[in-house]
Structure formats: structure tokens, C-alpha cells
Fold:
Amino acid sequence: MRVIGGAFKGIKLKSLRGTVTRPTSQRLKKAFFDALSPWVGDSVFLDCFAGSGGIGIEALSRGAKEVVFLESEARAIKTIQQNIELLKVKRACIIIKENYHAGLQYLNRQNKRFDILFFDPPYQFDHSSLIQVISSLEFFGEGALLAIEHFYKDQLSLPEESFIPFKVLKAGDSRISIWKFISIRAYNFG
Structure:
């Protein structure tokens, strides 16, 4: 797995062996960062179900000012740490070793605000529980982008009063569905 763009382009990252994680394909990763390139620079980025950290590291390479990696697997955390050390970007990274629900609740209590949130849960994951948790959180910056990678047959929907569909990216059996966060405060009822 290599960084495909930005300051670290071409650098080979450490990855996990086995079936603990399923990395995002290079083709889908490129499409994702090409689509979001105007928003990545200076962003605060969440990489949830981070695996080896490839998506978050790609965001750093393309100018994100901070990345939070949320992952529960010990081997994956070690790989993320090794990749961060390899690139010497420790100051721009926060690693949280926790399951997604507890980790997201922790970040919410810390009043953390994100510009881009990327979720890559395992296939055959209960997306409805993830969406329920996401919908209860208050850490979306105005205009934040929420992306969920999923199997192409999975139909995802978020509350329309807070999220509007932005884009769906496709590669093989995978999709990344992207929504834009809108706040009721963004409407002018005057």
C-alpha cells in the first residue's frame, strides 16, 4: 500500500496481513481524494475503523492539519503508529484505541469538530447502528463531509434534515457514499 498523492506520494506504508482489516482499494482511494481535494487542505479529518491508517495518512499527505485515527484492533494500532513514525507526522495525529461507538462518544464529549469524517466498517456490518450513532453526534463542523465505505448492495440513508447526499464513488464491489452536513442554523427563516 502506497501513498498516492500529496507530500508523501509514493511512500510505501506498512499494512496488516490477514483478514483483520480490508484496506480501501487504491482506485477508490484516488477517486475519494480527487473528489474531496478542495476540502482536505487544513481539515480536521476522522479515520474511523482506520485499519493501518492509509486513508488518514493520505489526508495528511494532501494537507489535512490533523487526523484522528479510531481503531479497536491492537495490531492495527501498532501499524498506524509505525506509519506515523515513518512519515514523522506524530504531532498532527491522535490515535484512539477503542470500538467505534465508545470512541465516537468520547470525541463528542471532548467537543471535537471535524471537517471530513471517513468510516470504513467491515463488510456485513450493521450500518443502521453506525448511522444511529453518527446521527446522535454533535461534532460536525458546518458543511462537514461524511463518507462511508460499503458493499455496493448496501443501501445507506442518513437523516435528511441534517445530511444531504453529495456523491457516490464506485470501484468493483465497493462504494463510498458521501453526504454533506447541514445545520438547521444554516437556513434563514427571516
Summary: The chain has one domain: 6-15+24-186. Confidence is low (pLDDT under 50) at residues 185-190. The beta strands are 44-48, 66-71, 93-97, 114-119, 140-151, 163-171, 174-181. The two ends are 52 Å apart (CA to CA).
